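Q: What residues go here?
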């Protein structure tokens, strides 16, 4: 017995199960919820020379870097200001969504040698005066809060360091911090040359 579309619709009496108005309402609800969760700093308006108003939303950045770790296993690091996540539904399940933050998470690489740890972070579009570095014995925090860009990243260090013997330089959007391995509790600000 083959598929007979006409007899199937006659049996069910209507176009079977698609309520396009309900689907449209669902999409409207999803877009409204997404836009409500976007920080207001992402909405910009500017007047064009011809008098029209241009509205922009963003920037939204998401990416990942995949490298092979020292143990031969892949290491995947995410960066940007968007993160895939899930939200609970009314029926106990969850649905995929995106979390949007004002601060971007920069792409950061950490290299460990015999006596030093090098942290390299990509921070394009900022001035070195806007970069704030703080370091304790096992964690370094990179933050930027400028008018155009905001970055934030907490970096777990693979060994204890002495931030008082550390150096940092910022060139062409790349921050390189060299930390000296040490023992003992410390907590100092790092000066950028």
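A:
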């Amino acid at each position: 017995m083959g598929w007979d579309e006409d007899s199937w619709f006659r049996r069910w009496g209507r176009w079977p199960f698609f309520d396009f108005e309900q689907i449209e309402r669902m999409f409207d609800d999803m877009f409204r919820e997404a836009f409500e969760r976007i920080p207001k700093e992402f909405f910009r308006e500017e007047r064009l020379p011809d008098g029209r108003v241009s509205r922009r939303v963003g920037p939204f950045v998401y990416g990942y870097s995949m490298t092979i770790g020292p143990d031969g296993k892949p290491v995947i690091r995410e960066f940007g200001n968007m993160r895939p996540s899930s939200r609970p539904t009314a029926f106990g399940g969850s649905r995929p969504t995106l979390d949007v933050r004002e601060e971007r998470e920069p792409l950061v690489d950490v290299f460990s040698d015999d006596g030093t740890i090098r942290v390299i972070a990509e921070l394009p579009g900022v001035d070195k005066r806007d970069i704030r570095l703080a370091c304790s014995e096992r964690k370094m925090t990179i933050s930027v809060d400028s008018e155009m860009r905001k970055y934030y990243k907490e970096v777990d260090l693979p060994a204890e360091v002495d931030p008082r013997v550390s150096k940092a330089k910022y060139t062409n959007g790349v921050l390189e911090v060299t930390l000296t391995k040490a023992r003992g509790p410390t907590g100092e600000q790092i000066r950028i040359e």
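A: Context that may help when evaluating the design: DSSP finds two helices and 13 strands in the chain. The chain has a mean pLDDT of 81.
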